[in-house]
Structures are given as C-alpha cells and as structure tokens.
Write a structure and sequence with these properties.
The chain is an alpha/beta fold. It has helices at about 35-60, 75-80, 95-100, 105-115, 145-160, 180-190, 220-225, 240-255, 285-290, 295-305, 310-335, 350-365; strands at about 15, 90, 165-170, 195-200, 205, 210, 230-235, 260-265. The protein has two domains: about 10-335, 3-Layer(aba) Sandwich (Rossmann fold), CATH 3.40.50.970; about 340-369, no CATH class. Bound molecules: thiamine diphosphate.
Length: about 375
C-alpha cells in the first residue's frame, strides 16, 4: 500500500491535483470558474499570507499577544469558494482565508488581533479564534476536534429541517486522533447528514509528525472504516481543493451524505507564535514544501493564462500590504475595552458574584480602568 511522505506526495495514485507545482495544469480537470472569481481567490490567498507575516512581526514587537500562522495553507480558500453563502463553516484556527472569502472584513480581524474596543470579541479570545454569525463562520473551539461534532450536529439539524444547507468542518491531522473525530464521522455517515469533513493534513500536530499520530497509511483511508467516500487532495492546489469540496457538497445537497477529504498541505510557519519548529523539523523538509507553495503556483497559472499580468499581480500584492498597514495603524489607535467588559456581555444582567469580582478587581487596580 502507498504511504504518503513529504517527498512523494505527487506520486500518490489517489492524489487529486490540478495545478502542478510549476503552475501548469491538467487541462481537462480545471474547474469552470470565471476569471473575476479566480482573481478574488488570488486576492484572498495573498491577504491571508500578508496578514500572517504582519501578525508574526506585530507579535514579536509585543504589539499583539499571539498569532496562529496560516502560511502555506491558503489554498483552503477554494473550499469556501465551493460552498453557498448560506452553508455553515465550522473552522479550526487556520481558516482565515475561508472567513475572508465569506466577506468577514479584514478590519474586523485586525481589530480582533489587537483585542481593541472594536473587536467583536473585545479581547476575550485568543487572537485567531474568531467567528462571525453574519458570515456563518462559527467560532473555533480551542479543544481539538470538538467542532467536528458541532458541524455534524448542525448538518443533522439541516437534514431534519430540510433547509438545503450543507455544513463544512475543518480540522487538522492531530484532530483525527480525537474522540470527537470518531463519533462525528460515525454519526455523520450513519445518519447520512449533509456535511463535508475536511482534514487539513499539514503534517504536524505541534511537534508530532503525522506518522506518529496514526498507523493508517493515509488519513483518507479512515473514511473506509465509516463507510464514507474519501478524497485525498493536494491541499496546496486551490483548484483541486475547490473541485473536491464541490463534489462533496453536491453529494451532501442531493441527500447522499457526508464526505471525508484529506487535504495534504504543510504548515510553513510555526505552530503558533509560541513555537519554534526548527527543534523538530529540518530545513530541507521545509524547502521541499516551499517548492509547492500554493500562492506561487496559482499566480504562475493566472499569469500563464493571461488572467493577470505580472504587473497586475504585483500591484494587487502591494495594495494588500498598504491596506493592511493602514488597518493596523487604525486598529492600534482604537482604545482597549474598559475593564468591566471582562464581566459584561456574559449574562444579560450581571449576577452578584461577577459584580463582587468586578468590585474586587477595581479595588486591586486602584479604581483604574
Ligand atoms: C483536546 C485538546 N488536546 C490538546 C490540545 C493542545 N493542542 C493545541 S493545538 C494542538 C495540535 C493540533 O494539531 P492538528 O489537529 O494537526 O492541527 P494544526 O495545529 O496542525 O492545524 C494541540 C495538541 C488542545 N487544544 N485540545
């Protein structure tokens, strides 16, 4: 049986790939998507990259508290693009591209990074763990894998209500070892709920490589045990991700139940701003994956097809940087939430014990805000 390793991903017999790393394509597999839409995907992917690079610098400068890197995993934008706006997305914590594609304003994410008074979460969540009801982009849960059962439950509700919506849940390779993965996958297929379960196999759960996570040859093989269709896809290929999710969403909408997708990708950055990946992986391995960069190959494709010129792509990139720098400047100038907001917005009326804690805190802080 074929075992996937960082060196041979392209040789896998079941691996779905449309744009190969040099930017050329398997023509008959290219999805029918307008040029305008392709440029939207490109913009979104570049925005995610630029945001990540900026956020890491801001964190190192002590201007924001934390960052969850997304560099290398931007092709998941194709997954969001394959759904309808009325479908629900249950993300893990590296799906900034799906949120932006759905229309969550970049300004909101930047405010959230600063935990300022305009952050809808008002600084009460780890930066990167944001959600938005308007975009049907559910708040990620920090405990690994829990969103799988939430998404499957919501899909069960959609089936019961016959409202035609599909749910899509993202999770990492590490999450496939969680109890919630098992119960979610099992329940999803037993009740044939309209759910797309997409595992972003970025090769590591913090420092634990995927080969120490499971004895299965490939994560996609896990679908077989639940009687569910599985697709293994090049997770650095936006076309392949889009096609796989389109196929899965179509199946779900027809009433034919869930699909498990293993999206094979790589986290080029650290696990989080608190991690040092040089302690557990080699420079050579990272370079192997840098050569499969999802943005570079998509840009090469767009330019080769005259969908964008080299100059236009550079202009888009530069505009994104300028816009982000401006948003950062503005977000940094917004006041921090007042102290009492740690206790408000939790209950409609603040209960006595929170009032007491607020008073104690005020006393300790010397009445400061
Ligand atoms: C239930 C649970 N156990 C452990 C952790 C600590 N933890 C945070 S992230 C992480 C790794 C998750 O890896 P994976 O699912 O592959 O996602 P990735 O971070 O690679 O995107 C772990 C173990 C947690 N948040 N929740």
């Amino acid at each position: 049986m074929f075992t996937l390793s960082s060196k041979n991903v392209e040789e896998s017999p079941q691996f779905k790939q449309i744009i190969v790393p040099d930017g050329s394509v398997k023509k008959d597999l290219v999805p029918k998507v307008s040029n305008k839409e392709l440029v939207r995907w490109y913009r979104t992917m570049v925005t995610v990259r630029v945001l990540d690079e900026k956020a890491m610098r801001l964190q190192r400068q002590g201007r924001i508290g934390f960052n969850v890197p997304t560099t290398g995993q931007e092709a998941h934008v194709g997954a969001a693009a394959a759904l309808k706006d009325t479908d629900w997305i249950f993300p893990a914590y590296r799906e900034h591209g799906a949120a932006l594609y759905r229309g969550l304003p970049l300004r909101t994410i930047v405010n959230h990074y600063f935990g300022n008074n305009d952050d809808p979460h008002r600084g009460r969540r780890l930066p990167g763990l944001f959600g938005s009801r308007d975009q049907r982009f559910v708040n990620p849960s920090a405990p690994i894998g829990t969103q799988i059962i939430h998404a499957v439950g919501a899909a069960y509700a959609a089936k019961y209500l016959k409202d035609g919506t599909v749910t899509m849940v993202f999770f990492g390779d590490g999450a496939t070892s969680s109890n919630d993965f098992h119960s979610g996958m099992n329940f999803a297929k037993v009740f044939d709920v309209p759910c797309v379960l997409i595992c972003q196999n970025n090769q590591y759960a913090i420092s634990l490589p995927v080969k120490r996570q499971t004895k299965a040859k490939n994560l996609v093989d896990k679908a077989i045990g639940y009687g569910m269709p599985g697709i293994q896809v090049d997770g650095n290929d936006v076309f392949a991700v889009y096609s796989a999710v389109s196929e899965a969403a179509k199946r779900a909408r027809k009433g034919n139940g869930p699909t498990f997708i293993e999206s094979v990708t790589y986290r080029l950055g650290a696990h989080s701003s608190s991690d040092d990946p040089t302690r557990y992986r080699s420079k050579e391995e990272v370079e192997t994956w840098e050569a499969r960069d999802p943005i570079k190959r998509f840009r090469t494709y767009l330019i080769s097809q005259a969908i964008l010129t080299e100059e236009e792509s550079k202009q888009i990139d530069a505009d994104i940087v300028d816009n982000l720098n401006q948003l950062v400047k503005e977000a940094e100038a917004v006041e921090k939430p007042p102290l009492e907001t740690m206790f408000t917005d939790v209950y409609e009326e603040m209960p006595w014990h929170l009032k007491e804690q607020l008073e104690n805190l005020r006393r300790i802080m010397g009445g400061g805000k």
